Structure formats: C-alpha cells, structure tokens
Please model this.
Amino acid sequence: MTEVACELCPRGCVIPEGGAGDCRVRVNIDGRLRASTYGRPSAIHIDPMEKKPLYHFHPGSPVFSIATAGCNLHCLNCQNWQLSQRGGEEMEKVYRADPDQVVALAREQGCESIAYTYSDPIVFYEYVEDTGRLAHEGGLNNVFVTAGYINREPLRRLCRVLDASNTDLKAFDDRFYREVNAGSLEPVLDALVTFREEGVWLEVTNLVIPTLNDDLVMIRRMARWIRDELGEGTPLHFSRFHPQYRMRNLPPTSGETLDRARQEALDAGLQYVYVGNVLGHEGNNTYCPVDGTLLIGRIGFHITENNLTGDGRCPSCGHPVPGVWQ
Amino acid sequence: MKHRLHHWHRGDLAFVGLIAVTLVAIWGVLGVEDDTRPGQSWRRIDLERFQSYLQEGRLSDHEASWYHRKQETP
Ligand SMILES: [Zn+2]
Model:
C-alpha cells in the first residue's frame, strides 16, 4: 500500500490507496494520484464576462465556462454544492471534453475566452493547465474563477496560462475561513499577491454575509490590504448573500449594508468598488475615479453604455483605467 | 461565609475529575472535526463505483501533478 501526499493545496492531504483527497476528485489508485475529472466536466455554459464577475476584462464578451465535480473548500453557503461537494463518481451528468475539444467548442460558439469556474478549478488543475495551453495557442484567453486556496508554487506555474482571475476573498478573518469555509486566510492572501506578481489580471469578490463578515472595521482593513498589496486600481466586488445550502438561518444582505461596505472601501482608497447581484444599483457601473464620469454602465450582466476610449481611458480627463479592454 | 469553607471530600474530587474528563472529550471531538489541519484530510470514496466509472470512461485516470509517493506501508 503506497500513500501519496498531495502538494497542490494547503490541506496537504496524505491519501491511502483507494482514497481521495479532501477535494474528493484527486484519487490514489495503485500508489499514483489521479486527476479523476480530467476532461470530464459536469457543467458547460456560455456566460457573459460580467457574470464571473470580471468588469475590467474584455467587457461584454461571451465566455465558454466549464467545471468539474469537487472542491477543496466546504463553504456552508456554497451556491454550487451539488457540483462542488461531490466526487466524480457521484455525478449523474458527466461530459467528455478533452482539452482540444474544449478549445474547439469555445471557438465554434464564438467565445474568445474560456473560464474555469463554478466549483473551484484548483481541483482540476491539470485539465486547466492543458486546456489553457491549447487555448493560448489558438488565441483564446483563460479566466480562473477561484477561492485561491492553493499552494504558491503550483499557482505560479499555472499563471503562465492564465490571463485573468476573479478570486474570492471571503472575509479578512482567519476564524471566518475556518468556521464557514473549512479553510484559512493566509494562503488566499498569498494567492492574490501571486496573481498580481505574475501579471494575471485580477478582480476580487467579497460576499457580504449579515452578522458574519459585514463588520465595517474588518471591511476597512480588507480594503486597505488590497490597496497596499494589490494596488488601488484593483476592482473589488461586494456581492449579496442569499440563504442557501447549510446557511439558511441568515437573511439576504440588505442594500444598505452593501452601500456601507462599498463606501468604506472607496474611503479606504480603492478606485473601482462594485456592488454585484443587485439589479440597477449604481455600484454596477464603472466611474472615473478622477472626475466621476460614467465610463461603463451596466444593468445586471448587460452593458448599457461603454464610454471608454479605445485604449481604456476616461473620455473627459484621459485617466487610464486599469484592465484588459481589447 | 465561614461555614462554606470546608475540606475537600471524595465527592468533590470526583466532580472535578468529571469536569476534566468532559473538557478533554470536548477538545478531542473538536480536534477531530477540524478540517483544516494539513495532512489529515482524506476521504473514503465508493471505490467500486469509481472503478466502474473509470472503465466506462466517465472518469479519467490522468496522472495528477504536484504530489509525491510516501514510503510503502505494510
Ligand atoms: Zn475622468
């Protein structure tokens, strides 16, 4: 019997033969670790880029989005638990799509980007890496939507094929990570810094949950950390919590709470702070941080107007807005 | 106040002992349920089902990166 030690994420699972990692999908068969969902996605959709959410990366473009079963976090409020909290052998729906087929399908559907998303693509790392390489060869972009609970070296290598990431920062509090997500904060902060260092376009999402992580003092500390470590131009998305999965005892986040969070982050010096999944909220739009000009208007995932110049500047004052616009 | 001060009785010691055992038990349970300790978290899976999925091609045996083999265990 040969045990294997997985080095992909901070859990460092030591897995006996016939067992899986904590993620359920990396399985020790005959003393070798298998990426059991490689080429076997359980979700394939075409989404707008704004749904990831990425607001400063190819706005309004369709993204070919894939996910397999499994996840290395276990959030009590998971939106995709039917996918993320199951192993491959527990899935009813499994597609066969090898990396070259994913790239071909994405192009066929008119998508210029592929997103690895829904569950956490960290657990199907090899599939992302191989698909990502082929996508680049074919002139497509790779978008990594993640909670960032991964070791530094694997992430650094994966960044070679990544163009953009939306990474969750679930709270600026290690205890929250332990109690709500079964993870820890430090590796996530490391991942955010790694994305920045490796030149991957980065946007951050914080889901605001009433009473658990809506403390404005914590939100201020988080915003200041983002400003200092990732830069004032890093887009931050506050998104609204809806009761689900194992967290049905709390109400949805109020509009006022989201407004206060957004104001706190703007006051801390972040320039692009958004409020997600609240229809028609002014926090869906991009404004120039210098003179307040409306740069990109959005309703839901739909772009209503885009006033940026061709090279991504404010049309009034010429302020360059960070992002990947073309 | 004076009448409340008294020597330890056997019953008192048993009670303190019971409290200590309870605390140790609580600590043990919480420790076991902590999902975040490195190296401790792996899962049993339905191996028969997994193997049949592999054979049907519904799952892959693609070798993972980022792991190492440990010493053989008897
Ligand atoms: Zn301006």
